[in-house]
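STRUCTURE:
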C-alpha cells in the first residue's frame, strides 16, 4: 500500500494530461472498471472454481480489468515513461501472482486443468467456454462483499487529480513538466 502512494505521487508528477488524453483514456478505463465489477459479482474466492460470467472468457478478468485501467491512465497522463513503467510493473508483479494462483487452484480444484485448456490465462476469448453443468449469475451481494466499487471511486479520484493538475498548469500556477 505505501508503494502505491509513492507511485501515485510519481504518476501525478510525471503526468502531462490534456483534456483529449483524459477523454480518450475512458476507452480503456471505463471497460476496465466495469470488468472488475462484473468479475467481482461472480467470484467466490477459495470456495469454488469460478467458470461463468467473465471467467468463461478469461481466467483472470480482475487482472485484465486492472490492466485496462492502468494503461488507460498511462494514456491519460500522456507519458511514455509511465506506460513503460506500468508494463514492467505488471510483468514483474502480475505474472508471478497469476502463476502462484494457478498452482493453488490446480491443487484445490480438480477441474482446473480442463478449465485452463478451454479458457485463456489473460487475453479473453470472444465466445464463452462451455461450462458443462456449472451455473452462475452475477451477484450484487458478491460485488459489494468484494468492495469492487472502490475501483470506480479510485478512477474518479485519479481523473479529478489529473484535471486539477491540468487546470493549475493552464493557469500558470504550477509549471508544466
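SEQUENCE:
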Amino acid at each position: 500500500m505505501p508503494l502505491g502512494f509513492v507511485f501515485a505521487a510519481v504518476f501525478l508528477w510525471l503526468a502531462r494530461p490534456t483534456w483529449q488524453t483524459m477523454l480518450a483514456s475512458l476507452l480503456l478505463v471505463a471497460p476496465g472498471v466495469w470488468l472488475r465489477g462484473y468479475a467481482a459479482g461472480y467470484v467466490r474466492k477459495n470456495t469454488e472454481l469460478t467458470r461463468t460470467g467473465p471467467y468463461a472468457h478469461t481466467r483472470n478478468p480482475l487482472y485484465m480489468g486492472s490492466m485496462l485501467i492502468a494503461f488507460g491512465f498511462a494514456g491519460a497522463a500522456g507519458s511514455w515513461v509511465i506506460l513503460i513503467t506500468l508494463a514492467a510493473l505488471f510483468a514483474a508483479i502480475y505474472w508471478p501472482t497469476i502463476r502462484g494462483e494457478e498452482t493453488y487452484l490446480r491443487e484445490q480444484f480438480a477441474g482446473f486443468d480442463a478449465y485452463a485448456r478451454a479458457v485463456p490465462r489473460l487475453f479473453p476469448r470472444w465466445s464463452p467456454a462451455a461450462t458443462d453443468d456449472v451455473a452462475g449469475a452475477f451477484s450484487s451481494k458478491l460485488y459489494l462483499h468484494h468492495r469492487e466499487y472502490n475501483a470506480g471511486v479510485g478512477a474518479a479520484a485519479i481523473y479529478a487529480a489529473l484535471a486539477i493538475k491540468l487546470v493549475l498548469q493552464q493557469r500558470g500556477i504550477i509549471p508544466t513538466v
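REMARK: The mean pLDDT is 92.
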